[in-house]
């Protein structure tokens, strides 16, 4: 991980402070990395890229080689990415979300943790995955259409 991104990972606990503060879901990052101009334009509008540690791990999981990994790290650094760690409060909230939405809506662990992170940090969530995130009480969803 690049030094700038790594340092943000350990210190990113601030609440949303401006209209530009939006939690970016993994799907939007993937659309951007695949070269979809709509995703790139929307990310360009953000002051900085803010994402859950879980979104970062999901992106890492999809890496095919070291060159791709380095390119993603460079992009995150260029966009002044802020990584929000999973805390005890986020874990407890994600557990509550899963208990209420896994059976009825199919909410998975990663999405529950990402949603809980956005709620804990009072961030709206930019995502194309409104099926799951739209059902989460207390979460403002900004729908992204790829």
Structure characterization notes:
With 146 residues, this protein is mainly α. The protein has a single domain, classed as 5'-nuclease (Rossmann fold, 3-Layer(aba) Sandwich). It is 56% helix and 10% strand. The chain has a 3-stranded parallel β-sheet. Strands 2-3 form a two-stranded parallel ribbon. Helix 8 (130-133) links the parallel strand 4 (125-127) and strand 5. Helix 2 (26-33) packs across helix 3 and helix 4 runs antiparallel to helix 7. The longest helix has 18 residues, at 88-105. Residues 1-19 have low confidence and may be disordered.
- CATH topology name, in short, is Rossmann fold
CATH superfamily: 5'-nuclease
DSSP summary: helix tally: 8
DSSP strand content: 5-15%
Average pLDDT taken over every residue: 87
| Structural class estimated from helices and strands | mainly alpha
Shape: globular
Number of strands: 5
> What's the CATH class label?
Alpha Beta
The biggest sheet amounts to: 3 strands, parallel
Number of structural units classed as domains: 1
Helix content: 55-70%
Order of helices and strands: HEHHEHHEHHEHE
Strand order of the largest sheet: 1-4-5
CATH structural architecture: 3-Layer(aba) Sandwich
Précis, in short:
With 146 residues, this protein is mainly α.
What descriptive keywords fit this protein?
146 residues; mainly alpha; Rossmann fold; two-stranded parallel sheet; 8 helices; globular; disordered N terminus
Write the layout of secondary structure elements.
Blueprint: H1 3-11, E1 23-24, H2 26-33, H3 37-45, E2 50-52, H4 53-61, H5 66-78, E3 82-84, H6 88-105, H7 109-120, E4 125-127, H8 130-133, E5 141-143
Parallel strand pairs: 1-4, 2-3, 4-5
Helix pairs in contact: 2-3, 4-7, 6-7
């Amino acid at each position: 991980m690049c030094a700038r991104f790594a340092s943000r990972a350990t210190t990113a606990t601030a609440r949303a402070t401006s209209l530009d503060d939006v939690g970016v879901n993994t799907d939007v990052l993937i659309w951007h990395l695949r070269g979809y101009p709509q995703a790139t334009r929307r990310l360009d509008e953000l002051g900085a890229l803010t994402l859950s540690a879980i979104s970062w791990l999901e992106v890492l999981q999809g890496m095919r080689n070291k060159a791709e990994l380095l390119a993603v790290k460079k992009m995150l650094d260029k966009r002044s990415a802020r990584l929000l760690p999973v805390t005890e409060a986020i874990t407890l909230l994600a557990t509550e979300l899963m208990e209420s939405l896994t059976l009825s809506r199919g909410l998975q662990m990663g999405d529950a943790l990402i949603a809980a992170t956005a709620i804990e940090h009072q961030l709206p969530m930019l995502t194309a995955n409104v099926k799951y995130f739209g059902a989460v009480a207390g979460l403002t969803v900004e729908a992204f259409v790829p």
